Amino acid sequence: MRLTAQAAILGALLAALLTWLMINGKGEMDAAYVRTQRTVDAIALAESRMQHDVLRARTGLLRNYDPIVAHLREMQAALSGLQAASGPDDGAMRALAEAVTREAQMVERFKTGNALVQNSIAYFDSLSDRLSEPDIDPRLARAVAALQIRVSELARDASPNRLSDIRGRLDALAAGASSNRGADIAAIVLHGRQLLELLPQVDTVTRSLPDASSEVARQDLLEARRTLRDQRQARADGFRLALYAAALCLVALVVRVGLLMRAGTLVLRRTIAFQSVVAQAANHFSASQPDEIAARIVDVMAMVGTGACTDHCYILMLDETDTVHLWNRSGLPEPSGWPRAQRRLVPDIIAVAEDYIFVETADAIGPPALVRPLAERGVATFTCARLRRGGRIVGVLCFERTISVLPPWMRHSRGLLRVVAESFSAALERQHVWAERREIEATLRRAQRLEAIGIFASGVAHNINNVLNVMLGHAEIAADALPVDPGRAAEHIGLLVQAGGRAHEIAGQILDYGRRGCATQATSDVDAIVAETVDLIRTSTADPTAIRLTGTADGAVVDGEPAQLQQVIHNLIRNAIQASEPGAAVDVQLERIRLPGRRTLSHGELPSGAYARIRVSDTGRGMDEATRARIFEPFFTTRPAGTGLGLATAFEFVEEQAGAFDVRSAPGVGSAFEVWLPAHPEVAPGVAAAGGTVMIVGAARSALQDDEETLAALGYEPIGYTDPDAALAALRAEPGRFDLLIVENRPSESLGLTFARRAARIADRPIVLSLSAADLVRPEVLSAIPIVDVAHRPWRSNALGLTLRRHLGTEARSAPPRRKVAEDRAATQSDSVRLRGGSGTAARAKPAPAP
Q1: At what angle do helices 2-24 and 215-286 cross, to 10 degrees?
Q2: 672 closest CA partner among 608, 611, 633, 628
């Protein structure tokens, strides 16, 4: 700062010196000399033209004196300009002015005398008319004509002899004048004598005019101006040389100041850039939903770490989760001893009084307890901030740099670490609050469901009791009529079965709703499940063509159990059929949609991303606004035979998968229910091929060949077996040959769970169970084998590619053993969901116990 002030003062002094030298170093004399020379040349030209016009006037070729007057004025005007630019003591200018004045006086005398001479000559020229009169004396006419000729020759020859001759003729003419022409002769003699008197004077002035030229004065003036110009030019050259030297000094000073300013500018620019990075990181967290923060922490760490020019950035959580987040600069391995060495520093970090710690191991700057262990690990600079939640320390945010010390700009940006730490603390606090809120909401919803079920228990008992009374009545009638009237007994037995199915449906819906809220890790193929559900419902309707399925989800795969998704679609289609007139069309439309931004629906809000949309619409009775507001409430129904749990169960499932409903309806117009579910990213061609050999164990050879072609198209090496014993023998002979097993679930043919259990004892390889689109196995059964995942038929390349990538990718190959993964996965799952199976329409349309 001091050096900058000194440079500014010195620069101001040099600038003042340069200004003074520039003013005194101007080469203005060159221009002044050129202007003087041009003016003098103009005077010479005007003078030459004036003398030329004087000669023309003398010979009678110039009829007026206007050109002479104009040239004289030009000379005087040019002289006035020179006098204005000169000082009063300029002798050369005074001499030139006197010469011009002298010429002007001579011209005036010439004009006066020459005018009289030309007048007399003109008079003699006019005598021709008078000599032609008839009464003139011939002798007089001859004498006057001879005199006229001699006068006209004066313009060419004005020698003394000619003048004497004219004078003699005038005397003779005057002596012999007649009485009747006396006046004319007197006038001729007068003009002649005046001409003889003035003509020598005019000729004398004409001859003297060139001798009185201002040429000498002009040359003297130019010489004086040239000498003055040379003197001033020499002085200006000295000033310019000094100006050059001062400019060099100023350039050196400017370079020095420029270097200082460049260094300061770089520091300021990098600081501003880092401020922008910190602001972007804060905005990144602010624009994220609470459930997205965990996935974006490493992204924000990458932004801040790259902007801060650090090598490693990590967060060590000190709460009950003990979570760690790590970012490494591209091309660098994990920090030495990660994460145990870093966690050993936590007690020393907590012991420091400040929340923000800076350590430079080379200069031993920072807490001594941290300098030594960091130096042993090769850390050059270490920056740390403690993360707080409600005043309690819940984690530490650390930056490590191993290449060199902090750059200068970073030393000025340490205060921004506070903003970074506060951003991470606020984001983690939002995530913690959101998680607690979700847990409380889930507990509250389950409590509300249980409370509602308790309240509804009496009504359910009454309904089931009524159904049981009907069943008992029909059973008694059938028993009495069986021996005597088998047809009647069969009719009542059918009614008995129907009433039993109704009681089973009521109990199943209550169980479904009561066990909701337990998340699973299964995925569902939307196209396959919707198509299968529509086929099931068509078989149980009077007009199968009334249900129209259009569109496709383009192989979209969503989270959730297939049976639960099928139940949602089943409820929506059944409701649409029941709200429509018999035979009226019900449209089921599938579509895969990508939202560029957040969208608010009638029952939920969706972030940007890819979604599978299932739309069920009808042209039935429709709903008013009050009914639409309560359609997803448990036990709310507008049908006397309804339980009010179908849409409530569907809403719970969609909400658990982070989806939403969009309901549009109006009385007399119909209703449209749209289910929006987040779709998994599509598997790009060639990306899914993480490499590996896959064993496929199935029952049908033709289906096995199709499966092998599907896997080969995804980039894997498939080996199929239809004989379970042969597959076990191959696995026993080469346990390391196969990277993953896909087993078809065929309990009747010793396939499925039985084969998977035996294969798991031979080789610790991930096992995927292949099920039909609506099948589901209990989690405890999967964990006991273990089964790492399920693939629902018909296979979709996208869904199958995601499954294989999850268990055969680079991350999966470096993960813990498959048994441990499966056990952890199963521990997060809860009660099983029903497995649909059996033969016939009634069996496919109603719930059945899970295997």
Answers
A1: 160
A2: 628
Q: Of 677, 702, 474, nearest to 592 (Cα)? A: 677
The string of DSSP codes covering 376-419 is: HTT-SEEEEEEEEETTEEEEEEEEEE-SSSPPHHHHTTTTHHHH
CA pair distance 769, 782, nearest whole angstrom: 9
CB 770 within 8 A of CB 788: no
Specify which residues 740 forms β-bridges with. 694
* Whether residue 794 has a cis bond before it, omega within 30° of 0: yes
Report which of 422, 168, 132, 66 is spatially closest to residue 279, judged by C-alpha positions. 422
Confidence band, pLDDT 50/70/90 cuts, at residue 672: very high
pLDDT tens, 716-733?
Answer: 889 988 888 888 888 888
Output the six-digit token pair for 190. Answer: 């007068």
Helices 91-125 and 138-152 meet at what angle, rounded to 10?
160
pTM over 0.85: no
Q: Which of 119, 102, 8 is nearest to 63 (CA)?
A: 119
d(CA 696, CA 770): 10
pLDDT digits (tens, 9 = 90+) for 98-152: 888 888 888 888 888 878 877 777 777 776 566 556 666 677 677 777 777 777 7
CA atoms within 13 A on the CB side of 165: 15
Question: Which tens digits make up the pLDDT trace of 235-268?
Answer: 777 777 777 777 788 788 788 878 878 877 777 7
Contacts 24+ apart (CB under 8 A), 289-293: 289/607, 290/430, 290/431, 290/433, 290/434, 290/435, 291/434, 291/658, 292/607, 293/427, 293/428, 293/430, 293/431
Identify the bridge partners of residue 616 per DSSP, sorted by sequence position: 588, 673
Residue found by looking up tokens 């952890």 in the block:
824
- How many other CB atoms are there within 10 angstroms of residue 327's CB atom? 21
- The single-letter code of the amino acid at 829 is Q
The pair of three-digit structure tokens given for residue 296, joined into one six-digit string: 């974006």
Backbone conformation region of residue 128, classed left if phi is above 0, alpha if psi is from -120 to 50, else beta: alpha
Question: Residue 735's closest CA among 770, 784, 695, 704?
Answer: 695
Which pairs with CB-CB distance under 8 Å and at least 24 residues apart come from 631-639?
631/663, 632/603, 632/661, 634/448, 634/449, 634/452, 634/513, 635/452, 635/456, 639/578
Instruction: Report helix, strand or coil for 812.
Output: helix
Average pLDDT over all residues of the chain? 76
Note whether 202 and 54 are within 8 A (CB): no
Note whether 792 and 771 are within 8 A (CB): yes
Angstrom CA distances, 591 to 345, 522, 553, 555, 588, stand at 53, 21, 5, 10, 10
Instruction: Kindly list the distances between the CA atom of residue 140 and the CA atoms of 164, 165, 181, 183, in Å, as whole numbers in the listed order.
Output: 20, 17, 9, 13
The pLDDT of residue 404 is 63
Average pLDDT over residues 174-183: 64
Sign of CA dihedral 147, 148, 151, 156: negative
In 308-367, which ranges are continuous DSSP H helix? 340-344, 346-351
Instruction: State yes or no: cis peptide before 786, omega within 30 of 0.
Output: yes
Q: What are phi and psi of 212, to 5 degrees?
A: -90, 15
**Tokens 């273990």 belong to which residue?**
786
First to last CA, the chain: 82
